[in-house]
Structures are given as C-alpha cells and as structure tokens.
Specification:
Oligomer: single chain
Order of helices and strands: HEHEEHEEHEH
Helix content: 40-55%
Strand order of the largest sheet: 1-2-3
Number of strands: 6
Strand content: 15-25%
Structural class: alpha+beta
Largest sheet: 3 strands, mixed
Length: about 150
C-alpha cells in the first residue's frame, strides 16, 4: 500500500494498526484501502461497547493467494468473523484500484490477484482458467517429447 494510505490508517486507527507490530506496513495494494478502513471502523465500534479482557493486536495485513489476510492475536468470535468478512470482501474488489473484480488472475508464476477488467488488461495478467489450460498444454507437450 502506498505511503499516504498507510499513514492514514496508522494515524486514524493507532489502537488497531500499530506501527511496531506492522513492521512491513500493509503488504497489499491500494485497492483494499476501503475494506481495511471499514474493517477498522467495525472493530472499533464493536470494542467500544464492551470491556475487553484480552489484548487485541493486529500483527500482519497482507495479500496471500489473491485475497486479503489479516493476522491478529486476542480475537473473540465476533472479531474473527469481522476478519473473515473483510478477507472475503477482498475477493470481489480489485486489489490495485478498488473497482469491482471480475476474477482471480495469475500475474506471475504463483502470484495471484483479484483484478478488475482494466487492471488485468493493463498488466497483462491471465485468468486462472487460461493459466491452467496453458499448464495442461505444456504438460502434454512435455509428455510427447518423451514418447
């Protein structure tokens, strides 16, 4: 995430996004900024209504296998469900620009992203279906070499 958006999250939600814990910042792109902002607001609202016994701490926010991942300590069932909801939302939002995603794309071997049509075309990423089809075709070609 770019510096400006990272700083906004750190400044607005220091109780949730601690710079000492998130030493690498937000390891995802700008398109999920609104998801993280909404998530932080929901957590803050939930925690404001109760006395929290356990210390809640977000220790990592990143992209993994094309989806947002939020790792935290001290979660109860409600916080865990809010984390799962944010992670699920990320699969329908372009990680790069925040527009509605049209699917999961392969941007490099073993690097997946949910992207909108514009970003997928702009970056030359292929759909999962095309990627798998290409893998099948290469496997068949390789097998034919050994026959």
């Amino acid at each position: 995430m770019n510096f400006e958006k990272t700083e906004k999250l750190f400044q607005k939600y220091p109780d949730l996004f601690n710079q000492d814990s998130l030493v690498y910042g937000f390891e995802c792109q700008d398109g999920w900024f609104d998801i993280l902002t909404n998530f932080a607001e929901q957590i803050r609202h939930y925690r404001s209504d109760r006395v929290c016994v356990t210390k809640f701490e977000i220790i990592q926010v990143k992209q993994k296998m094309g989806a947002l991942r939020i790792y935290a300590n001290g979660c109860d069932a409600v916080i865990r469900s809010l984390i799962e909801e944010a992670e699920e939302q990320s699969q329908s939002v372009c990680e790069l620009d925040g527009e509605p995603a049209i699917g999961l794309f392969v941007c490099a071997p073993e690097w997946y992203r949910h992207l909108c049509e514009r970003c997928a075309g702009l970056h030359g990423c292929m759909t999962m279906e095309d990627y798998h089809q290409g893998c099948v075709e290469r496997t068949i070609e390789q097998q034919n070499l050994y026959i």
